[in-house]
């Protein structure tokens, strides 16, 4: 659990750098998916998917020398998509944590059941984050392989 929390904070801090490099020089906080709102994050993913689709079309019609450069760019875009996806998952985990905190201050009769349910959900999301982090390179390589072969 501690490893996942460290990863989430690292991912959010890296996402700030990514956001500043890819989007604009304006400053972003790490409190909300690297500075992106959910709508901006979804838009960014749509843009990256479209870019990846265009790169794939160019890759399929390209000759051998330029294919490697396109393939390298495709891998970069897939990594960016992966990181955007991880930001969404990290945000989901953070949202669950905030909900748990607010539930602990309540005094109604369903509080314990709700807290247990949310704790299980949070543990599942954190496990998924850790698994995906551990498999990041394999996931990206497989997606690139599937697209190019």
Q: Strand-residue fraction?
A: under 5%
In quaternary terms, these chains amount to: single chain
User: Which geometry do the CA atoms define?
Assistant: elongated
Number of contiguous helices: 5
Topology as a string of helices (H) and strands (E):
HHHHH
User: Radius of gyration, Cα only, in angstroms?
Assistant: 19 Å
Class computed from helices, strands and strand pairing: mainly alpha
Average pLDDT confidence is 79
Task: Please report the distance between the alpha carbons of the first and last residues.
Answer: 38 Å
Residues in helices, as a percent range: over 70%
Largest β sheet strand count, sense and barrel closure: none
DSSP strand tally: 0
Low-confidence stretches: 14-32
Walk me through the structure.
This protein is mainly α and 149 residues long. Helix 1 (2-22) packs across helix 3, helix 2 runs antiparallel to helix 3 and helix 3 packs antiparallel against helix 4. The protein is elongated, with a radius of gyration of 19 Å. It contains five helices and no strands. The chain starts with a helix and ends with a helix. The chain is 83% helix and 0% strand. 18% of the residues are buried. The longest helix is centred in the middle third of the chain and has 41 residues, at 64-104. Mean pLDDT is 79; it is low at 14-32.
């Amino acid at each position: 659990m501690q490893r996942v929390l460290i990863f989430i904070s690292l991912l959010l801090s890296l996402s700030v750098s990514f956001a500043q490099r890819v989007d604009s020089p304006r400053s972003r906080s790490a409190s909300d998916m690297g500075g992106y709102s959910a709508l901006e994050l979804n838009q960014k993913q749509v843009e990256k998917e479209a870019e990846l689709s265009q790169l794939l079309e160019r890759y399929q019609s390209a000759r051998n020398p330029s294919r490697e450069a396109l393939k390298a760019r495709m891998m970069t875009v897939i990594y960016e998509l992966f990181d955007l996806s991880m930001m969404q998952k990290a945000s989901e985990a953070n949202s669950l944590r905030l909900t748990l905190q607010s539930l602990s201050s309540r005094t109604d009769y369903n509080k314990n059941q709700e807290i247990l349910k949310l704790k299980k959900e949070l543990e599942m999301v954190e496990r998924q984050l850790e698994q995906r982090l551990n498999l990041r390179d394999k996931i990206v390589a497989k997606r690139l392989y599937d697209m190019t072969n």
